[in-house]
Amino acid sequence: MERRYYKDSNDEFRFLLDEYLNIPANERQSPALKEIEHLFVEADGIHISLQKDDNEKGELKQTIIIKKYL
What we know:
The protein contains 1 helix and 4 strands; from the N terminus they run ββαββ. The protein has one domain. By secondary structure, it is mainly beta. The two termini are 25 Å apart. The radius of gyration is 19 Å and the shape is flat. The protein has one helix at residues 16-20, and strands at residues 6-7, 13-14, 36-49, 57-69. The strands form 2 sheets. The chain has a two-stranded antiparallel sheet with strand order 1-2. A two-stranded antiparallel ribbon has the order 3-4.
């Protein structure tokens, strides 16, 4: 995931999502994430033909995240 850097009306740069999630400055992850013992992530996708056009393809994507706390 790419973090977006925004410039506010005072010409200061901020990571809005980090502020919303209460991630301290210069941290790469949330303090809550450090409490997780195991984090399981599974992602997959399936390619499908769209109904209206045989040449058009789409992809159905799904991600599952399961966390186990200490």
